[in-house]
Amino acid sequence: MAPVTEDQVEAVRALVAAIPPGSVRTYGDLSSEVGLASPRIVGWIMRTDSADLPWHRVVPASGRPASGLRSRQLEKLRAEGVPIVDDRVVMKSARL
């Protein structure tokens, strides 16, 4: 993995914290905005440092959550009014 600075970690955290209920952003959106080499780095940040963040509002570009999180993430998103069809976020409607 490419080196990640504390400033980049904090920038990702700030962007995730700013996603309003009912909306989502992708790992790629956040990666591009912060200037990270890969969306996977955002995934790493989210796995290691997101307990106090609305982690469920960050999804893959496909709109389909990872299998290990799928039911919990979709439940949280549905509760916020995010449009979901066939266990996939309707990105055209929900993506910031």
TrEMBL record:
Annotated keywords: DNA damage
Coiled-coil intervals: none
Gene Ontology BP annotations: DNA repair
Keyword DNA damage listed: yes
Ranges for domain Methylated-DNA-[protein]-cysteine S-methyltransferase DNA binding: 10-82
GO molecular function: catalytic activity
A Pfam family it matches: DNA_binding_1
PANTHER family associated with the record: 6-O-METHYLGUANINE DNA METHYLTRANSFERASE (PTHR42942), ALKYLTRANSFERASE-LIKE PROTEIN 1 (PTHR42942:SF1)
Protein name, UniProt field: Methylated-DNA-[protein]-cysteine S-methyltransferase DNA binding domain-containing protein
Lineage of producing organism: Bacteria, Bacillati, Actinomycetota, Actinomycetes, Mycobacteriales
